[in-house]
Amino acid sequence: RQLTDWQQRDFTAPIFGIMSGCAAITVLRNMGVMRKSPRWMIVLPALPFYLMPYQIIYHTREAEYLVNMMREEKSSKFAKKLRVMFEKNIVNKRSEILDEIESGAEISE
Predict the structure, then answer these.
(1) pTM of the predicted structure, to 2 decimals
(2) In sequence order, what DSSP letters do the residues of the chain get, joined into one string?
(3) CA torsion angle for 34, 37, 39, 43 (degrees, to 10)?
(4) CA of 46: how far to CAs of 8, 16, 17, 36, in Å?
């Protein structure tokens, strides 16, 4: 329950996306990109600078949440089902992630 509450209140990805998108708009304006276009059009070339950091951080944090959820498999039906599906779908039956989840250690990068 505490883990899910943390995941739902995690604003890291939107904050990073907004910061990098605003920085991209500032840099693109200073470089003179789309100078003759309407002002709002600068958003179009700045979109990738928002989306890429947002997606990378979002999926990294989501993976962290799911791994921690698998560690607490006794706490909910979803966690048990997630663990069973992960164990069933791994290619290598000797998974480093499963070993570290069972030991409770932090997973190295």
Answers:
(1) 0.67
(2) -HHHHHHHT--HHHHHHHHHHHHHHHHHHHHTTTTTS-GGGGHHHHHHHHHHHHHHHHHHHHHHHHHHHHHTTTS-HHHHHHHHHHHHH-SSSS-HHHHHHHHTPPPP-
(3) -50
(4) 27, 14, 11, 16
Please state at what angle helix 43-71 crosses helix 96-103, rounded to 10 degrees. 60
Q: What's the distance, CA 94 to chain centroid?
A: 26
pLDDT in single tens digits along all 109 residues of the chain: 666 677 778 888 899 999 999 999 999 989 988 888 898 888 898 899 999 999 999 998 888 887 777 776 666 777 777 777 777 777 666 676 666 666 665 555 5
